[in-house]
Amino acid sequence: MEAKPGAAPQPISLVLKEIVQEYPAPGGGITRVIDRISLEFDRPGINILLGPSGCGKSTLLNMMGGVRPPGLLAPTSGTILINGAECTDAHDDAVMVFQRYANRPDLTVYENVAFPFQLSLWKKKVAKTEWQRRVEDMLKAVGLADKKDLYPAQLSGGQNQRVALARALALRPALLLMDEPFGALDAQIREEMQQLLIDLYKAWPCLILFVTHDVTEALKLGDRVIVLSTQPATVADDFIIAEPRPRSSTWQRSTEAVRLEERILAQLHQVSAGRGAVRVSI
Amino acid sequence: MSLWNPYASLTSGQRRKLGVAAILIVLAIWSTLSGFGLVGPVKLPTPWAVVQAMGYLAWNGETSLLLTATLWSTGRVVAAGILVVLVGVPVGILMGAAPKINAFLSPLIDPFRSAPIVALLPILVMWLGIGETMKIAFLFIGAVVYLIPMVRDAVQAVPQSYWISARDLGATHWEGITKAIVPMAMPRIADAIIVGISMMWTYITVAEYVNAREGLGQLIQNARRFSAMDQVFAGIIVIIALALVTYQLMLRLKKKLYPWETSL
Ligand SMILES: Nc1ncnc2c1ncn2[C@@H]1O[C@H](COP(=O)(O)OP(=O)(O)OP(=O)(O)O)[C@@H](O)[C@H]1O
Ligand SMILES: [Mg+2]
User: Fold this and answer.
1) In this predicted complex, what is the ipTM?
2) What predicted TM-score, i.e. pTM, was given to this entire model?
3) How many structural domains comprise chain B?
């Protein structure tokens, strides 16, 4: 996807105010999973939500995407504002990418990327010639142009996630919510996908919230890293990484990077006291 | 290679050999029992007698009783089958798509799955008479009470992630059903249709016992009245063969329509 003059993400602001999430506990009573998290995002960038497994990252991200657990109030209290308006349902400007790729097995790669444009919402917004061009462009951008007639089952895990990325970005979203999108991939493919995300972001610099429990991934991708504690989740740390991407392996071994990594790990050890698992991949 | 391995794959040659062997064993036992007079011909005709009866029914010098009967029965199954699909699939989809509709309709439909449908026959005769309407209605009810719950279950079995993802991408609730859930449920809905139609072949004889004038059920019923056991057997074998062919054809059509299904 080439950045075209005139085609740039709408500016967007995302505000989380005092978000609390409680779930009924197995033995009766309630468990507070998220405790008064307040965050503000008002400029494009890759924002990492980092935290141990089970701390509530998906819960938080799903809320922003308008995905609610069945039969539960989410959030229990607090508000999410997108461009100043309270967000209670799937939002047109927000698109999610899940860890388990949500590609449709009954549709080809092309049809998967084109799927949203078959819905009344996007039919109204985007003319056919326009979306066809976008789908072709995105398939090229993620390197699947020659695989567009295959079914997801005929693709590898990494390629499937490329389809998911292409579908999300073909909608030209202002807000991209990614829940451990590369978590199921092995190390080498994960690195390829991280590079792809960097390239895609450069062409379409929108507001990205990227959930991971991989410290290395956070340092490689994040403009801003938000470290969450666990049980309940609170914001344990929140800092900016100014180093431009792609971040060389020299930088990744630099004192700055090592210090950031130690800072994150210390934070996680302190707050989780060995409860969650944080992966460090080299 | 151990016998006990549910995942062992057989070559189609092996499968065919074992299948043919089973049929040959049954034929051998049958021939022995009937051929040596261990069971009287009134109770069990010889295989050869059944073949002859089949030949007679296929062409008795003037007409083909078998062809006429088969056409009538097939016609009834097709007519009832179309109705069952036209009613059962939409109703099942609505029930699967909306828990409230399901809660409302399932007490009216689910109990019939364990009810003796055959017991409804006298009631249907009373209401609808003994003509075609009654026969089609009987086949329809017999199959639709199975089809509807199966279609509903097929819809409910679609993983929620597809719904969530479609909604996130901007689908309205209704589009979530029509553009994500139903397409994903189609292979299992097709399975349900196949079972439903196959089931009608088991009901057809019952439907045709009443006021039997045409059809395979009538053919069997008449033969039984005249103690022509060879013709009874011939009729039953034809019904089994028709059911089998219908089943295989529908299965093939399904595989062709939903080639992606095996990859789930
Ligand atoms: N519907 C629910 N009902 C009850 N508890 C829930 C529900 N959904 C999540 N939880 C609990 O909330 C906590 C946070 O879950 P969540 O999936 O948000 O964690 P996560 O940080 O995304 O973990 P992971 O890294 O493993 O994906 C977990 O302890 C989980 O058991
Ligand atoms: Mg998660």
Assistant:
1) 0.86
2) 0.86
3) 1
